[in-house]
């Protein structure tokens, strides 16, 4: 861990703890997050975790930038990994099919594996939720096995269906709402990933873990899934 403080805005500082993405970062990020919330108290407006950083948005009417830096330094004194258990584990059902996951064949070709093996490998791991962003409820998860990792599409799609499950490099995610996107799509989940009536809005939070569970078409529909083919959304 190599802590540095970077300026984001007049009332916002970035605490950078690591230089590389790793699952082992999360216990430290959770511990630092709890400490920061404690030392800032009501002077904290927002705290945004990511793969290697914590963005600290504070109330400039209550703290100067120098005082905010001092509080961040105080939070790091004798910091230890968060010993509490990880967040909630979510099991997301996924219908893996070419009609909703057209890059399944591409990933199979790149890896030299049968499509069924790509599906098995993607659903065999438990993924760490590193951060939320891009769209409300969009959880960046990893790390995907290198064998089935793939770069983003060179030309993003204008419209990706809600629930679409994709891979980009060694990350995986599910789109919570209809939106543009350039990830390699491999299936679709019926899970409601974003709900403005839910406490916290997003189904998943940083520190949670996710496991994808393959289901057939009938089960996908029974769970409320939308099987509209991707090309029909254009």
TrEMBL record:
Residues 3-204 form the Carboxyltransferase domain. It comes from the Bacteria. The keyword Repressor does not apply. Keywords: ATP-binding, Hydrolase, Nucleotide-binding. Gene3D superfamilies: 3.30.1360.40, Cyclophilin-like (2.40.100.10). GO terms for molecular function: hydrolase activity. This is Allophanate hydrolase subunit 1.
């Amino acid at each position: 861990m190599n802590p540095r403080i970077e300026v984001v805005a007049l009332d916002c500082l970035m605490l950078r703890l690591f230089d590389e993405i790793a699952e082992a970062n999360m216990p430290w990020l959770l511990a630092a997050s709890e400490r920061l919330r404690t030392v800032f108290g009501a002077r904290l407006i927002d705290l945004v975790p990511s793969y290697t950083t914590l963005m600290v948005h504070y109330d400039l009417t209550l703290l100067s930038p120098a005082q905010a830096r001092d509080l961040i330094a105080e939070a790091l004194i004798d910091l230890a990994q968060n010993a509490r258990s990880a967040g909630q584990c979510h099991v997301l059902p996924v219908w893996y099919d070419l009609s909703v996951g057209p890059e399944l064949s591409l990933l199979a070709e790149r890896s030299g594996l049968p499509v069924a093996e790509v599906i098995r490998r993607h659903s065999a791991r438990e993924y760490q939720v590193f951060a939320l962003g891009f769209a409300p409820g969009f959880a960046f998860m990893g790390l995907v096995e290198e064998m089935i990792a793939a770069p983003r599409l060179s030309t993003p799609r204008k419209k990706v269906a809600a629930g679409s499950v994709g891979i980009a490099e060694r990350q995986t995610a599910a789109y919570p709402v209809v939106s543009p996107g350039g990830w390699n799509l491999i299936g679709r989940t019926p899970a409601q990933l974003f709900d403005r009536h839910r406490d916290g809005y997003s189904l998943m939070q940083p520190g949670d873990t996710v496991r994808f569970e393959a289901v057939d078409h009938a089960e996908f529909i029974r769970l409320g899934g939308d099987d509209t083919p991707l090309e029909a959304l254009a």
